[in-house]
Every structure is written in structure tokens, then in C-alpha cells.
Fold this sequence. Notes:
The protein is mainly beta. Among the domains are: 1-40, no CATH class; 42-72; 137-203, Thrombin, subunit H (Beta Barrel). Helices cover 12% and strands 38% of the residues. It has one helix at 45-68, and strands spanning 79-83, 86-90, 96-102, 104-109, 112-117, 120-124, 130-136, 138-139, 147-151, 154-158, 164-170, 172-173, 181-185, 188-192, 198-203. The protein has a four-stranded antiparallel sheet, with no helix packed on it. Strands 8-9-10-11 form a four-stranded antiparallel sheet, with no helix packed on it. A four-stranded antiparallel sheet has the order 12-13-14-15, with no helix packed on it. The longest helix is centred in the first third of the chain and has 24 residues, at 45-68. The N and C termini lie far apart (84 Å). Residues 61-75 have low confidence and may be disordered.
Amino acid sequence: MFCTNCGRKLDPEDVFCPGCGKKVEKESKEAQIPSGVIPKKRKSSKAWAWAILSLVVICGLAFGGYFLWGKGSEGSSLYPVIVNGEWGYIDKAGKFVINPQFDDAWPFSEGLARVQVGGKYGYIDKAGKFVINPQFDGAYDFSEALAPVEVGDKWGYIDRFGKIVINPQFDYAHNFSEGLADVKVGEKLGYIDQTGRYIWEPTN
């Protein structure tokens, strides 16, 4: 405790200041701190709790998305190989995980692989099960959750469940990248967003 008049340090039992003789006034703990001394503030436990909780949520979302889209660990990677004219998939140890049965096959992208059976294209998961049955005349890999597919002589886009989300209307269509895809109408090139809306009308 310190004298509020002269700043001299006081003993708890002092009634008058030995330095200036002023009567000692009982002050709050904050008032007893000499001027120029900044008290240390306790770190808020709530702030730490929120920081930890936020970190847990972010990590959970990151790992959840990582496995949801089928990227998983490196050990889950599968590779297309051809045996006696039919395509299947092996793991990194060279062991067949999906037996040869397809006319053509491509690497996995976002958890699904494009395969060809009887001239039609579909998509399988890493167990070799068809998620989207062979039905398209042309197709490309999934990118940003959408894949270009050809129906008849026009291209559109499907989602991961095989539902057409952008109707076939283009003469050619490419994969989405950063939210946009380039498409061709006749000899003209344009760009669409993931709703199929032109953000740049086809020009040449």
C-alpha cells in the first residue's frame, strides 16, 4: 500500500503516513498500485477456450472434406492398368483392388473414376461400384464437384450423383477451374459459372 499524497510505501497497520503525516485512506487494490506501474491482466480462459474450439472445428472440416471427396491418404490411391484388353485398378503395392472389367478407365478424381463400358461412360467409386451408370456418349473427370458429359452431340454438366445440373447445350465443354469453365458454341468460346450462367458470352 502507498500513500496517495507522497507515494511512500505504507505498512498495513499505519494510520498516518510516516512521510507526510496524512491520514491513510483505505483504497481499493487498483488504487494501491503506484502510478506508472501497469498491472498484468490475466489471460481470459474464455478466449483460450474459443481459440481451441475454433481450431478443432477447422481441423474437423478440413479432414472431413478431405475424406468426403475421396482423396484420403496416399495409401488409398488407385491406378488404372490394362490386362488382356480390360482395365482395372491396382494399389501402390501392385495388388488388384478393382478387377479388370472395363473397356477403358481413367485415374480417380474427387473420389470417382471415369470408365467406359460398351461405348458409354460412367463413374465408379474406389470399391469398383458404379455410382453413376454408363450412359453418356462422352465424359471428363470431376472437378469442383461437376463433370462435363456428352448427351447425343451436346455437352452439359452433372453432379456427383449423376444429376444433370447444367443442361447439354454446348458443342464442347471443359472442366471447371476456380468456379469457371470454358465452353464452345459453334466456333465461339465463352465462360460459364457453376449455375450455367454466362459470365462471358461466346465470341470468336
